[in-house]
Amino acid sequence: MATSDNDPMKPVATPTPRRKPKQEITRIGGRELKPSTLMMGHGYDPALSEGSLKAPIFLTSTFAFENAAAGKRHFEGITGKRPGGAEGLVYSRFNGPNQEILEDRLAIWDGAEDALCFSSGMTAIAILILAACKAGDVIVHSGPLYAASEGFVAKVMARYGVRYVDFPAGADRDQLDEVMARAKAMAEESGGEVPLIYLESPGNPTNALVDVEAVKAARDAHFDPDRCPIAIDNTFLGPLWQRPLEQGADLVVYSLTKYVGGHSDLVAGSVSGAKRWIDAVRALRNTMGGIADPNTAWMLLRSLETVELRMQRAGENAEKVCAFLSQHPKVEKLGYLGMIKDARQQDIYDRHCLGAGSTFSMFIKGGEAECFAFLDALKVAKLAVSLGGTETLASHPASMTHLSVPEGRRTELGIADNLVRVSIGIEDPEDLIADFAQALEAV
Ligand SMILES: *Cc1c(COP(=O)(O)O)cnc(C)c1O
């Protein structure tokens, strides 16, 4: 059979693929590139994927080894027989290309050494807590927490012999010292340690801020900082408006479902921080699973390209809407970080926050009936729980997200019957004000 050089059936010699991605450019001259610039390419080399400008979605459950010795080296890394972890990709429960790029880019936003992505915010939180604790230990946490986080600590961890002590979000150094001393005594009595201080700031739905600097000072005074990391759920203000690693937190936790995902079309979570803390969490994720899937990771790469733009616009919109609401005769008060009334809270805000966010509480004069009339009259804003999406959402915590909280605790947390929770999106601000104005007329 005759063959010629232009025979379409003749196999084309493929160039040997480069195994290592090209050198990353993170500086130009003396200038360190900003996260918003790095989001377009960091951690991805088109030459490794047929020149595809954007990362393809890698749908595979397993990865081919170059040779048997390479396979052995990977497993030595995964099992901890050799330090440094796996050198390449092995199996999709451990990691994949889309998730690795996502993790590299997530770490950039918080100025963290390393990051891990998860299938939900709660998976991230649950695996972080499980990785830190053993029977007899006592967790110290701020309150209130996201209801599922609070339940995981109080109900699930209790079944494994882990107790907790909590303190109110705004606690000062004296209160923190008292709480840490009490936790230490409890842990000693049950033969354990305090292996984790877990914070959420601002708290939901009151927007009360935690003084991370004071928590770090108290932690350093009572515990060995190498055995007791401070983790903080930064879902409400991160990554743009609060950078807790700079105030002394060791780990930052996200529900990426909210501002980072930002389009109300996915569920995911993450943990970022120093490698020595992240490695223990990664080991448990390798065992349990719970990593984000490749498609979700790919969607999050797209989200990260616009996260700064979206959050800036949402923040500006919220400022305008709150300026309108604060003057409205049917609005009793606002729980908005741009209009703090308390000197201690304002001091924490000034030290910790770069912006007021776009999620706030609005107290309508009246009670549940007035709130329901308002919610039912909204035309642009949607009636749904969650936050941080491109669209404006409103809900009624007392009868929805916090219905299961006992009435006494609800009052303590400031979750009144006349509270409407609002997350402002990126619509036209004047359209939003028109919508809120006409809905308040229906009250
Ligand atoms: C939504 C949320 C979570 C849980 O995240 P999921 O992605 O829904 O699992 C945790 N913390 C805060 C503050 C949240 O708003």
TrEMBL record:
The keyword Lyase is annotated on this UniProt entry: yes
E.C. number: 4.4.1.11
GO terms assigned for molecular function: methionine gamma-lyase activity; pyridoxal phosphate binding
CDD domains membership: CGS_like
Annotated signal peptide: none
Broad EC category: lyase
Taxonomic superkingdom: Bacteria
Pfam families xrefs: Cys_Met_Meta_PP (PF01053)
Record flagged with keyword Lyase: yes
N6-(pyridoxal phosphate)lysine PTM positions: K258
Region (Disordered) location: 1-24
Cofactor: pyridoxal 5'-phosphate
Protein keywords: Lyase, Pyridoxal phosphate
InterPro entries for the chain: Cys/Met-Metab_PyrdxlP-dep_enz (IPR000277), Cys_met_metab_PP (IPR054542), PyrdxlP-dep_Trfase (IPR015424), PyrdxlP-dep_Trfase_major (IPR015421), PyrdxlP-dep_Trfase_small (IPR015422)
Family as reported in the entry's similarity comment: Belongs to the trans-sulfuration enzymes family.
NCBIfam families per UniProt: PRK07049.1
Designated name of the protein: Methionine gamma-lyase
